[in-house]
Design the sequence.
């Protein structure tokens, strides 16, 4: 039992250390020796838990996807029903905040765009894209969208803009910020809301 | 003279091959052996022209910056003065087209976001960012912007969105497309133009 708990702790420490290194150095250059050292284990222990670098990246992505799902579920629980646009704006701000603080979530998003990383590993960005689209379809159903706004088309713009801010934020953290996201929503919201009183671009 | 011409041709072939490989594989994984092979020269000849991988990447970026400047100058020459917003929309579409076809231009943009690439190499994206901002300041001067629109704030949104489309386009070319850029401008233009008859979101 104690042994099993220790194994779970080691696995978590390795995932956290790998996320740090993948996010800071990129998948290719990230060193397994440095990752095991940061996690406080031998490289033998790393290979016991994750036989390959791919397996380690895959575990980071799985953990990141889980955190994204929890983040979105939390936002859904806090938002009154029938306010899908507010949910979308708030979730974007929450994600921006968390991407700065949470290396696992950040690495999950970044591995999706990392050419050095095998293409089969990833999907956190895709999850975010699908959720944006589903939420805008919900907004259409509840009459929150102005006539003529097509959820799938708008979803692509929202998604591209958030990916752009996150990409630029890798070199300059000021880009992946609530200030920048607020600028986007200030531009977009008045064009897409049916009601004059749409959600606050800065989030609620 | 003939020898000098051959040197210029070799240099160009190496830059083109390097751009292909940097863009396809990323800076870190790109192989100098494969680059010299594609350029039809020995690795010795590659090292004669470019002593390091960094020097080669730097040459790709310099060539890409030159192409971007020419592209923007061409758009400026074709656009009637006093139509800065139309210039911005058209240049974005022209850039999107060229990014798909021109590996040197594409690699120049991508090396900016490539964590494996030394940070001092780059600046093509920054050039694009500065040009967007200068063009929007011009639009403000000629009264094309709606009251309350702040050029620097709008420039950040336009820049982030184009970087997002280009980043997503690395894995799925459908993203870096005029269709996607048109969606963005369809959303943004009615919010920012002083006049009801702004430029065509699909470009002119």
Sequence:
């Amino acid at each position: 039992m104690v042994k099993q708990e220790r194994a779970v702790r080691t696995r978590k420490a390795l995932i956290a250390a790998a996320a740090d290194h993948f996010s800071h150095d990129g998948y290719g250059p990230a060193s397994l020796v440095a990752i095991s050292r940061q996690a406080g284990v031998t490289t033998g222990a790393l290979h016991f838990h994750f036989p390959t670098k791919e397996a380690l990246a895959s575990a980071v992505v799985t953990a990141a996807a889980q955190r994204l799902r929890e983040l979105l579920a939390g936002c859904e629980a806090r938002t009154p029903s029938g306010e899908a646009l507010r949910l979308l704006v708030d979730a974007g701000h929450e994600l921006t905040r968390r991407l700065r603080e949470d290396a696992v979530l950040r690495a999950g998003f970044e591995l999706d765009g990392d050419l050095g990383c095998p293409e089969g590993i990833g999907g956190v960005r895709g999850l975010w894209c699908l959720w944006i689209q589903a939420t805008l379809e919900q907004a259409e159903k509840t009459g929150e969208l102005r006539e003529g706004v097509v959820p799938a088309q708008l979803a692509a713009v929202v998604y591209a803009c958030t990916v752009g801010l996150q990409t630029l934020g890798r070199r300059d953290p000021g880009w992946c910020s609530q200030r920048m996201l607020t600028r986007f929503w200030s531009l977009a919201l008045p064009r897409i809301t049916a009601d004059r009183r749409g959600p606050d671009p800065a989030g609620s």
Remarks:
- Chain A touches chain B through 36 residues (CB under 8 Å).
- Chain A has a mean pLDDT of 93.
- Residues 61-192 of chain A form one domain.
- The longest helix of chain A spans residues 53-78.
